[in-house]
């Protein structure tokens, strides 16, 4: 059953303004990304990225408020009661009562993580469960562990289209990191999760970052429930989700932040099939996902079968073989090196074999709903692009769907009459034998956005080079035909022009 919940204040309501007062204390101590970076210095900071705290502890022994907060939360060290009282005046007892800190005789320790998070929108603070595995400690976490800012979370945040919208939905909000971003450009955000602890932390994070949680027309609303169940019948302008997408036999223990409890990649399939029903016309849905690559079926053909009633742009960013995948996630669960490791590894691999899973793809699924969309008219582009892209990629998602629109109803005659312009960041690379008259390979490469590369022949390279917005495609092709001979027939070349526009090499004026 979906239920609307107000977790923002439930466990701390007996202390008025606790979270705003915490925010003030964090700001007063300069507990910000810049403040902490300057305090730790590069070596200790990089060590912490490797989960090593010793260099950081050596840099934070002075007893200032910033040092105390950094030791407590980033380095998971204890601090004296006196030092904490100085850093968080009047807040120690209420933070202990709220489950954020814990106190024993003369010492204080963190019960949850609280760290500054640098976003384009300015400094944010994020509460989550403590990072496991510091200094080689076991990597084990509880089943309801709430992830902090993970690389996957950052990847989705950078992919998200950041245009002003009326409403946004964050499915599987966890600590609420996507919602914190969404609240900067969506008037109203609904965030869902099945994990009550996640909703509690997401509510605190909203409050800590000054986002309203007490209104149904603006700010953040938290709802408990699975996938789209809490938003049945509702539509949004933007939907984002970094779901629990780990592909496993769905047997044994379940870590809710990564395991959906559903077999294989069916959680992603359900999301992709369900998401268009929750988009307003023109709305965009963005999903970070894993998918199974099964024997005798191309990955893109399988995913294309899930797409219906919307345009889609799917990018496969990475492919892992089953063994590498199982190792990755058994290590993540802290099972590596335990007596059970080999058995679980073997069980998981056998299950992949039974399911005919040959590899696991990781990537982005972007969906866009259209008003008046008719079956068969939707544009589905599924491609693999493993190379580095320009971040944030959100603007490229908008540009992609704009290009789809510009080409959708453009007949060949109309295309011939357009005056395209080569995008300013496109460069040409040639390869071939030294001294050869013609290059063996010509590649056009974008320096921005997805940083696509496209192999072209000499005619397409000449055409692209001549596209400065002054001549029509028809004029350009006629000129090339005169120059290079009749094999440059305009009709044969229109598909290439469409390709160059679709991939963003040429802008249609
Ligand atoms: C990978 S975490 C993502 C958290 C956060 N949105 C982020 O980007 O880092 C997946 C989240 O989905 C939640 N979750 C698991 N199963 C779910 C379900 N059936 N419906 C909704 N949320 C679910 C988990 O509790 C967890 O918070």
Explained architecture:
- The protein is built from 18 helices and 19 strands.
- The protein starts with a strand and ends with a strand.
- Helices cover about 35% and strands about 25% of the residues.
- It is an alpha/beta fold and about 500 residues long.
- It binds S-adenosylmethionine (SAM).
- The site of S-adenosylmethionine has 24 residues, from α7, α8 and β8.
Topology summary:
Elements: E1 3-5, H1 18-28, H2 33-49, H3 54-59, H4 65-74, E2 79-80, H5 81-87, H6 92-97, E3 101-104, E4 107-110, E5 113-119, E6 122-128, H7 151-159, E7 165-171, H8 177-182, E8 186-193, H9 196-208, E9 219-224, E10 236-241, H10 266-274, E11 279-294, H11 299-304, E12 311-320, H12 322-332, H13 341-354, E13 357-368, E14 380-384, H14 394-408, H15 412-416, E15 421-422, E16 426-431, E17 441-446, E18 453-456, H16 458-466, H17 473-484, H18 490-502, E19 506-507
Parallel strand pairs: 7-8, 7-10, 8-9, 10-11, 12-14
Antiparallel strand pairs: 1-9, 2-4, 3-4, 5-6, 11-13, 12-13, 15-19, 16-17, 17-18
Helix pairs in contact: 2-4, 4-5, 12-13, 16-17
This protein binds S-adenosylmethionine.
S-adenosylmethionine binds at residues 147, 150, 153, 156, 171-174, 177-178, 192-195, 198, 226-227, 242-244, 256-258, 260.
